[in-house]
Specification:
Layout: E1 5-7, H1 12-21, E2 25-28, H2 34-39, E3 47-50, E4 60-63, E5 66-70, H3 75-80, H4 82-87, H5 89-96, H6 101-106, H7 109-115, H8 122-129, E6 132-135, E7 139-141, H9 142-145, E8 146-148, E9 151-152, E10 160-166, E11 170-177, E12 184-193, E13 196-202, E14 209-210, H10 212-220, H11 245-264
Parallel strand pairs: 1-3, 2-3
Antiparallel strand pairs: 4-5, 5-10, 6-7, 6-10, 8-9, 11-12, 12-13, 13-14
Length: 265
């Protein structure tokens, strides 16, 4: 591996300046994706900008009907947070089901979202809850954030600061995990607020996406039976050694029914 410069900024603004000065630099959050990619030779940045020392990027705050999570807040912190567990229990459970204990204590909410892994859990929560992702430059609605396989709306010199999650009336997350990694073969996060329902799916496509047919059915009647007969097309879905596109398409409405039942308690 070639020599890599290392920076440890003290603020998000400084991190953004360093990133702007070096287009070949890579931001480092929890390192759960970046470090393995470096070891495998899949990533060769000129510099690493380590965000671990930036205190303003950590923490959880509940203000009114919004739960704000700092981008460098670990999965374990979210899972154990009193605020998260009381405001959005499904989000705390999602965080508690990521990887293993080591991954949960190193991986971060912002790192997961910025990476946009097709099988990651946090993108489903962000899109399912209609979160707003705040950066050093702007605020980005989740509907506009995820662009494709490992691709987001983030600009190279833009640092994710925090995520604002609206508190729903009901929500749930159900996934079929890959046994070794605990990544989602398919995961469904749904949230109901007033008469509106949002349903986000991870693990099935190149990146997280919403399923309008399921949302519309649940807006008419928020019950598992309302999804009877719902079918999801397999065109464009992932197909690999763990499951075919047809299998993943079949799982989406089944997991959505389980999520509705869970949300109803």
């Amino acid at each position: 591996m070639s020599q890599v410069a290392y920076h440890r900024p003290a603020s998000a603004a400084e991190a953004a300046r360093l990133a702007a000065a070096d287009p070949e630099a890579k931001l480092l959050a929890g390192g759960q994706s970046v470090i393995p990619s470096l070891k495998l030779g899949l990533l060769a940045p000129a510099a690493l900008i380590d965000l671990a020392g930036i205190a303003e990027l950590r923490g959880i705050r509940l203000q009114g009907r919004t739960l704000t999570i700092g981008a460098m807040t670990t999965h374990a912190t979210v899972a154990g947070s009193t605020e998260a567990r009381s405001a959005i229990p499904a989000l705390a459970r999602l965080a508690d089901g990521i990887g293993d204990r080591q991954v949960r204590n190193r991986g971060t909410a912002g790192g997961s979202l910025a990476n946009s892994d097709p099988a990651a859990d946090y993108p489903a929560a962000a899109l399912g809850l209609g979160a707003v992702l705040r950066t050093t430059h702007r605020s980005i609605p989740a509907d506009s954030f995820f662009k494709g396989l490992f691709e987001t709306a983030l600009e190279p010199a833009e640092v994710l600061i925090a995520i604002d999650f609206p508190v729903p009336e009901r929500s749930a997350y159900v996934k079929l995990p890959q046994p070794a990694s605990r990544f989602a073969l398919v995961g469904v996060f749904l949230a109901r607020t007033g008469g509106a329902v949002r349903v986000a799916v991870t693990g099935a496509g190149p990146c997280v996406f919403r399923v309008n047919a399921i949302e519309q059915a649940l807006e008419k009647a928020f019950t598992p039976n309302s999804l009877a007969g719902i079918r999801v097309a397999d065109a464009g879905l992932n197909s690999d050694i763990h499951g075919s596109a047809e299998y993943r398409a079949h799982l989406i409405p089944l997991l959505a029914r389980q999520a509705v039942a869970q949300a109803l308690g």
